[in-house]
Amino acid sequence: MPKYLVAMGCCALLAAGGVAPGPARAADRGAGEIPRLTDDQGRTLTLRGWNVEDKTHRGDQALSAITERTFRDLRAHGFGFARLLVFWDDLEPVRGQYSQPYLRKIERILDWAHRYDIKVLIDAHQDVFGPAFGHRGIPEWATRTDGLPFTHHPDDWFSEYYEPAVQRAFTHLYEDADLRRAQAAMWRVLAERFGHHPAVIGYDLINEPMGEFRAGEDPATAARRVEAEQVTPMYNRLARAVRSVDRRHWLFVEPTPAVGEGVPTGLGKIKDPKVVYAPHFYNTAMESGADYDPSAHWIESYEAAVTAYPKEQRIPVVVGEWGPPDSSLPHMGRFYADAMASLSRYTSGWAGYVWCYGGGYCAADASGALRPNKALTATPYAAAVAGRVRSETYDPGSRTYRLVYVAGRGVTELSVPTGVGEWRVGVSGGAWVRGTRVVGLPGAVVTVVVVRD
């Protein structure tokens, strides 16, 4: 979830400061580089899409804001990935009683996604812990505050994470044995129910984990300690829970939001062979309404911070949320160009925030057209490459996508926007193409070019 004004207060401090392997493995980019995400055929994957959510409705109306149109429009713009927000408080409103209607609603959404060939990441989402503090996520019955105070900040909701009651609730979630078991059981329910659904690509174990500061601790130090001492053990517990019922799908793990201010994560090793690092990509100033300032070099700082951990752990990266609240400001075209170039250097993909129809963060207007500058995210790309990628570029000036790869066995799948004009696909080097599917002779160096007519 985007960061609002509280980050302004801490940004100066932040800036200073075992299971059997599944068939899909991370594909190496090369020595010292971050591996790429792969599928169970060994193809190199690129995920591009948007978060899909309904934070407003609960009970019988839960998830009703997500419709089949969502996935039809995503596909029309060339997006093949959705990060689906689900809420523990909806799934288990009463301890030990899991909502079958809610599970059926999730399944219906996954069915729509599969119909339009969109891969879904199931995200166990929380904002400011959950409904005990007026938000969504972890149930009230799992919220323990020890009577510490909490004050709402309606104009700056993210600052509520710094309220003593919220921070103590995270400590209990991480440390109390019964809450640990309850969180693991929740994930077993989700993974067992949806582990065989063809739309699912993985599980985001918790959105933007936070924690409790110690006296005298600055935010950057606190973030790294919480990640090392509490979040890492949590991820390993939840990984074991998922693997008890699903040994196939990728597990996505997030750092705390401090990474957005250029603070490398303190996460340790997650003991699973199929882990994806899933940071978020937000800028404090832009979240507060400012225009993009290239001279601040925020993107460069973020990229340097965010790539250290996946290089060390040899795991792929997919950015789970990104995008400013106002994409119409004068320098936002430059922002999207710089951001897309950066993301292409080290990630296996991303999910923008958020697919809805309207203003603010919404990707599309009421008609379904992409909003100002957000249309720059809708470009051709290779969703799956059957072989080893040598190079991949997109030139926005000539509107030309170019992929060069050494072909292996299987089909390379392109994703091309269909709702914004016509694109022409050509191949050379021992390959043939039908529509957006390319087959190369094993060992051949294949060049794919997609040009806007």
Question: How would you describe what is shown here?
Answer:
- With 453 residues, this protein is α/β, with parallel strands linked by helices.
- Helix content is 29%, strand content 19%.
- The strands form 4 sheets. It has a 7-stranded parallel beta sheet with strand order 7-6-5-4-3-2-10. The chain has a 5-stranded antiparallel beta sheet with strand order 1-11-14-17-16, with no helix packed on it.
- A hairpin with a 4-residue loop joins β12 and β13.
- The chain is globular and about 70 Å long.
- It starts with 5 loop residues before the first helix and ends with a strand.
- The relative contact order is 0.13.
Largest sheet: 7 strands, parallel
Helices and strands: which structural class?
A: alpha/beta
**Global outline:** globular
Q: How many helical stretches?
A: 10
Low-confidence segments, given as residue ranges, are 3-23
**Radius of gyration, CA atoms, in whole angstroms:** 21 Å
Percentage of β-strand residues: 15-25%
Report the span from N to C terminus.
Answer: 37 Å
Kindly report the average pLDDT value: 93
Give the SSE string: HEEHEHHEHHEHEEEHHEHEEEEEEEEE
Per-chain topology:
Blueprint: H1 6-16, E1 44-45, E2 47-52, H2 68-76, E3 81-86, H3 88-91, H4 100-115, E4 119-124, H5 164-175, H6 177-194, E5 200-204, H7 219-243, E6 250-253, E7 275-277, E8 280-281, H8 284-287, H9 298-313, E9 321-322, H10 332-346, E10 349-352, E11 381-385, E12 387-395, E13 400-407, E14 412-415, E15 423-428, E16 431-434, E17 437-440, E18 445-452
Parallel strand pairs: 2-3, 2-10, 3-4, 4-5, 5-6, 6-7, 8-9
Antiparallel strand pairs: 1-11, 11-14, 12-13, 13-18, 14-17, 15-18, 16-17
